[in-house]
Amino acid sequence: MNIIHSLAITSILTSTSALANINLTAKDGFTLKGQYFSAPSSSDSAVLMLHQCNYNQTMYKNIGKQLASNRIHALSIDFRGFGDSATTQYDVRTLSQLSTEQRRKAWQDMTAHWPSDVQIAYQFLKDKVGAQGKIGVIGASCGGSQAIELALNNQIAAIGFFSSAQNDKNIEKYTNSLSGKPTLIIAAEEDGRTYTSAQALFIEAKHSNSKFLAYKGKDHGYPLLDKDSNLTPAIVTWFSHQIN
């Protein structure tokens, strides 16, 4: 699939790895905001990081830095309507002011763009790693569904589900088409459907490098990164082994 996109680098911070705030132009002209953690130009591996729907791209800042330090390009984006990708037209913060029916329609209108928006982000990384490069994706909570759709339509080398509840339809998609890929699954035992669907995904996972990290309690997504200082390096190490 050939998708035309544009990129504007708005700022660069120099540390162990370079962090750039970037603009990606979606196919309808909408501007998506992201953070790109650059690896050496010779690197042919990358990870796309998709946030959960009660947070934004910044949840992956430390993971992105460590991936880049391990010679892996990393990109996190704000979904349309979230974080720095919110506009007067698309803004999740204003949905509560609408009636139930208006809220449902506004959510559907906004999220309908997400698969093509995520495709733009994937193409950005594909341009970095080249045709033979390897790209992994991790999706937290609602980002997991977008990770599945991306992996169904592109060459994804490894996939991660971070506190990401999946419905039966998505579990079936994973089972039929994605279960042979290395899969990292993270969930807390008291996190309801998130944990039971994580178990279902892991049962179907066929690759020997697939891994399930289970936590006590009910923390959902990014709070687990604060709770366990070993989780960030564990995620980075796992992806490094799959795509480096």
Automatic annotation (TrEMBL):
Segment forming the signal sequence: 1-20
SUPFAM superfamilies cross-referenced by the UniProt entry: alpha/beta-Hydrolases
Alphabetized Gene3D superfamilies for the sequence: alpha/beta hydrolase (3.40.50.1820)
Residues that span the membrane, as ranges: none
Top-rank taxon, per record: Bacteria
Pfam family, one: Hydrolase_4
Protein name: Serine aminopeptidase S33 domain-containing protein
Lineage of producing organism: Bacteria, Pseudomonadati, Pseudomonadota, Gammaproteobacteria, Alteromonadales
